[in-house]
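Minutes, project check-in
Item: structure for the 217-residue chain
Input as provided by the requester:
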Amino acid sequence: MRRLVFFIGCLFVAACSHAEDLGTFNVQGGTRIYAPDKDAAVVLRESAIQKSKTSEGQQALKALQEKNVQALINPAPLSIPTESARSSKSYAMDFVMPVDTPYARKGQKVNVLKSAGKLSDTASRIVFIDGRDQAQVDYAVRLSQATPTKIILTGGSPIRIGERYAKMNGGNGIPFYFDQRGMFIRSLYNWYGIRLVSVPAVLSDAGNGNLRIDYGF
């Protein structure tokens, strides 16, 4: 990972600098002919490595690394409102895929809760919460203590929150996930027509082939 960040940073530094002389020009019969001394990719890589050793290059790399770390620790929140009032909606649990996907073929019947949620073998429901609201965090923790639950954040830091509950469950802690760029929520709507309107929201198997979403506390 460090090598990848370093290389990306090197390319960034090189791109922000003046262009290098990648070869020589010879004149033959009045025509200028470009004859590269080295492969352009090699020259670019060598130039980037040299520039990364300068104080300016080191500062650029440090800034890039810090930005990546902060994005992991404090991801940008999603625009999902909080609603404490309780309500419920039901959807068909089994869904027939309209097109081919990496996970299922067209016409194949899939279980929305398990296919979209990528649930583990033990988790039986998903709860979406805004991790910046301690009341919602407490609610999700209570649910996970009663029944195996996958907790997905729409806001807040999954790393920081997870640290606070690292000693629970016999020292195994409680895992918190973050819906990066809202990809999971979008897949619920795009593939299954399920629009998540607010948090907290609990997705569970209501029986009789139905998926149930319980909003609020």
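Outcome recorded: The chain is about 40% helix and 25% strand.
No further action items on this chain.
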